[in-house]
Amino acid sequence: MRFASEKVGDVVVMSLEERRLDSRTVAEFREAAREAFRDDCGFYVLDLSAVGFMDSAGVGALVGLLKYLGRHRRLELCGLKPTVRKIFRLTRLEKVFTIRDSKEACIAASRSLRSASRARG
Amino acid sequence: MSATAGDQVRFSIGSSFENVATLAEEVSDLCKNRKVSSPDAIDVLRLCLAEALNNIVEHAYEGAEGRPIFADVRLKSDRYEVMLIDEGKPMPGGKLPDGSCEFDSDELDELPEGGFGWMLIRSQMDTVEYERRDGCNILRLEKTFSA
Fold it and tell me: Are A63 and B20 inside 8 Å of each other by CB?
């Protein structure tokens, strides 16, 4: 599973560099995501712009990742192509995930979340 | 591998997730070459084929590789029909799963990580029929669409 990961401020961004997230690749994905997100920063972004095909096994693996990270760590998705976006709609999982257009939008969201929590004190 | 007879194209593969991915892409390419009018319907077919074929590899053949799977594909500009045939174990109870997949999106721990495949197939195809005949599973998927 090819991917790049970077830390931007307090956010870890994992960008998949694979065209498919499906039955064939989910086992590798699970392992790669846990490696990329081992940094305990609490805000994680998964950039799916390279992915052109995702099946139910792929979307199931993303649910698994969300559950693995738990309620106190945040996962956001970005860069979904229309065909990938569609599977989230068809499975009704788009209500479960936070999906934004770009990683920049996710990073901006993490900053406003942080300042909101600081303001609450 | 594929062979054409009339308006039907028969694909045959040995069971494996790798071959499923390739077959779904080949059928998708065939749709484009045969001027299937709706890109959206082509995406739907690629997805549903991958789901149904993965199910054959995983459940009918219990992960065994190299077992025969045939896909007979008929394409028109506004309609497709696919018949999938395998020699694996029959569907549990001899019938198709109902494809229901209910969950409460607020209950993180309760979210399902699987079971979306049949839900996708049933929601996207006009017809989904299953038959067990002569030791084979025969699954027929059909959809009509507008350009």
Answer: no
Residue B6: pLDDT above 80? no
Q: What does the pLDDT average to over B21-27?
A: 95
Q: The whole model's pTM is what? A: 0.91
Low-confidence ranges of chain A (pLDDT < 70): 121
Contacts with A, B 73-92, CB within 8 Å? none
DSSP-derived letter for residue B90 is P
List of residues 6+ apart from A104 with CB closer than 8 A: none
Return the ∠ at Cα B113 (arms to A28 and B120), rounded to 5°.
Answer: 105
A55 contacts on B by Cβ (under 8 Å): 47, 50-51, 54, 117
Q: State how far residue A70 is from chain B, nearest Cα, in angstroms.
A: 8
CB within 8 Å: A67 and B17: no
Q: State pLDDT tens for residues B57-114.
A: 999 999 999 999 999 999 998 999 999 999 999 999 999 998 888 899 889 999 999 8
Interface subset of B 89-118, CB within 8 angstroms of A: 101, 103, 105, 108-109, 111-117
Say which residues have a Cβ less than 8 Å from residue A103's Cβ, sequence separation at least 6: A8, A13, A15, A45, A47, A78, A79
pLDDT in tens, B78-88: 999 999 999 99
- Tell me: ipTM over 0.90: no
Burial tier of B38 (Cβ tally within 10 Å: 0-12, 13-18, 19+)? middle
As a three-state string, the secondary structure of A58-109 is HHHHHHHHHHHHCCCCEEEEECCCHHHHHHHHHCCHHHCCEEECCHHHHHHH
